[in-house]
Amino acid sequence: MNTARITLASLVLGSIALVSAHAAPQSYDFKDPKGVNNVQFKLDAPLESITGTATGVTGTITFDPAAPAATSGRIELATKSLTVGNPVMQEHLHGANWLDVGQYPVISFEAVSAANVRSQGSQILADVTGRLTVKDVTQEVTVPVSFTRLADKLGARLGDDKIKGDLLVVRAAFVINRGEFNIQPGQYTDKVAEDIHLSLAIAGASPRE
To answer: 70: domain CATH number?
Structure first.
């Protein structure tokens, strides 16, 4: 009888430990060796519609699917990686009058809190509030975000099944006003829209031994 009780207790404790380990927060690195992670932007003015991408994404997010409201982290984007199709337009974009990539090499978003957390299939949706910094101007913004944790898929993404680990896919779309970040406020609005539509699709890696 005592042996049976000990065995049962061991099984219960083992199950609790297993659940706890599975639910533990994981840290995901968003520096992507494939260069697939990207941010897209669009400015749709009366005379011109400007679209572009950026792939210089880095940062770390700590995420626990059992407690998504506790998500924290910081994502950075290298401003020099922002590209548009027109070379002259890109030179202006990088120049001192606009983003001034030499003086302000990074755009960053630091998560502060998450609200309205809910599940939708394999995704966890949340409204993430954080500090967005562009050209050393920081504004609080709230962004609708989807998180998808893909267990044991790191090797598949990197094309090497010997690599073990999980992925966290983050997608978001939101709008900011360039004037609020000191990007030529109120200027050239016939060709450069004041609203910048941003969308990102990025995946972070959490390797395992």
So the answer is: 2.40.128.110
Domain that holds residue 192: 24-208
CA angle 32, 99, 145 (to 5 degrees): 45
Q: List 176's β-bridge partners, or say none.
A: 196
Report DSSP state, residue 153.
Answer: -
* Number of domains the chain is built from: 1
What global pTM score does this model have?
0.86
Average pLDDT across the chain, whole number: 90
How far is it, in rounded angstroms, from Cα 18 to Cα 12?
A: 10
Three-state SS for 59? strand
Q: Give the alpha-carbon dihedral of 88, 93, 98, 100, to 10 degrees.
A: -110
Instruction: Please give the pLDDT value at position 126.
Output: 98
Burial 16-51 (b: 16+ CB within 10 A, else e): eeeeeeeeeebebebebeeeebbbebebeeeeeebe
Tell me how far CA of residue 23 lies from CA of 26, 64, 109, 204, in angstroms.
Answer: 9, 6, 26, 18
